[in-house]
Design a protein that fits this description.
Pyruvate-ferredoxin Oxidoreductase, domain 3, alpha/beta, single chain, 6-stranded mixed sheet
Length: 182
């Protein structure tokens, strides 16, 4: 089993944090092999950002694959730039607060929509949109058990314990959306 994932959006949307959290939590809590490869645009906040995460039960030959099993797009430009890299039958995760699913010009991929920006605003935690989307991803793909990510959130925020519960709850909200769209 090998999953090739790209997460793409603008700087400031937590794209790198989402990929790093997924890869570190998976590496720490499972016996799977993981690679994380970030790519930044010219400007950090507001510029383009994307990262590749590969999760495999075998050795990983390359940290980057342009034939993706899963693609998470947090904004429209990322959709248009990377949709051609998603293989037929792959999963396309869309931040539907910002990206209109009608813009997807392919019918050979599964589109999973979640209004993560609006959800983060609704729970008064605007920085949690990436954690919500990570929940959607895990819920829809079962790439790793949900408990792995919850442990990862607890570890990430161990020095800021007041942030653990809100982020775990945000993750669980996304998890339910992902499970419902399997």
């Amino acid at each position: 089993m090998e999953r090739n994932l790209m997460i793409a959006g603008f700087g400031g949307q937590g794209v790198m944090t989402m990929g790093k959290l997924l890869s570190e939590a998976t590496c720490d809590a499972t016996d799977l092999n993981v690679s994380f490869f970030p790519s930044y645009g010219a400007a950090m906040r507001g510029g383009t950002a994307n990262c590749f995460v590969v999760i495999s039960d075998e050795e990983i030959g390359a940290p980057v694959s342009y034939t993706l099993d899963d693609l998470v797009v947090m904004n429209g430009p990322s959709l248009h730039k990377f949709i051609s890299n998603l293989k037929s039958g792959g999963n396309l995760f869309i931040n539907s607060t910002i990206v209109d699913a009608k813009e997807v010009a392919r019918d050979d991929v599964k589109v999973i929509e979640a209004p993560v920006t609006q959800m983060a605003l609704d729970i008064n935690n605007p920085r949690a949109l990436n954690v919500i989307m990570l929940g959607v991803y895990v819920g829809a793909t079962d790439a790793v058990p949900a408990e792995v990510i919850i442990k990862g959130i607890e570890h990430k925020f161990e020095k800021k314990p007041h942030l653990i519960e809100p982020n775990v709850e945000a993750f669980k909200q996304g998890l339910e959306i992902g499970k419902a769209q399997k």
